[in-house]
UniProtKB/TrEMBL annotation:
PROSITE patterns: PEPTIDASE_M14. This is M14 family metallocarboxypeptidase. It comes from Rhodanobacter hydrolyticus. Residues 30-311 form the Peptidase M14 domain. InterPro entries: DUF2817 (IPR021259), Peptidase_M14 (IPR000834). Belongs to the peptidase M14 family. Pfam families: DUF2817. Gene3D superfamilies: Zn peptidases.
Amino acid sequence: MIANALYPIGTPGQPWGAAEVAEWRTWQRRLRSYGDEVQDRIMALRANFEVAEYGRLEYSPESYPLFFVKSRDWNEALPVMLLTGGVHGYETSGVHGALQFLEHDAARYEGRINLLAVPCVSPWGYERIHRWNADALDPNRNFRADSPAQESAALWRLLSPLRDTACMHIDLHETTDTDESEYRPALAARDGKPFQPGTIPDGFYLCADSARPEPDFQQAVIAEVAKVTHIAPADPDGTIIGSPVVAHGVIEYDCRKLGLCAGITDAPYRTTTEVYPDSPRATPAQCNDAQAAAVRAAIDYALAYPAKASA
């Protein structure tokens, strides 16, 4: 990974054009299989869920089907809960934590909720263990109706009809050491801006939506995850990744303004998880467990406080 500020693609101070994006794309190599590691597990869920294709990514010569997993007996009288993972393909536990929840935990909510899950929003990025898509775009800055990112546009079309009816949306992410060594330098180079070094928090944290933060909901998720893995402390300046810590393990973003996945709907309970897989205090299994615990806690809270959700 690249640790210095001089990213080897482009000219310092000048945003990338098509030539630089094309050069960047030639660097990317397929490192794992979406079909074997993700799609096969999604297909196995057909025994208990409705599984269907909601779109397809076309990055010639490759084509990737996009799948949702949905409660088979959808009941309009039940609350709608949304689960997304793999918006950033390199954030492994976001994908596998979502699959783990679907395989081992979701059955306990049958007949109590309408569940719609997308375990892997960005399969091209998953295979290359990358944050961006093939056009050097970050899907999690591009969730809007006219999105230039195929991944974001497809999920927007899927979830937008639930904008006013969704009760909860939890989006599973990771913060990794490569954020600082590769992706932030690449972002600075792509946008023609100077690279500003940051910090990587050691532990799990949440990004609440500043438009509706719901502190009790966030803390319920933190409390459950704390049984599985450690919660990230604030940096000495009281921030996590440069954002003020508003409560134990919680920061806030304006999800809709930033084009984040959690802002697609008006679900009153919404949050973005951030696991730290590079911590010496966490294992891959622990990271998956933390994601699944966060999903359970989010659903349990939304079920316990439906009146607040409809307020």
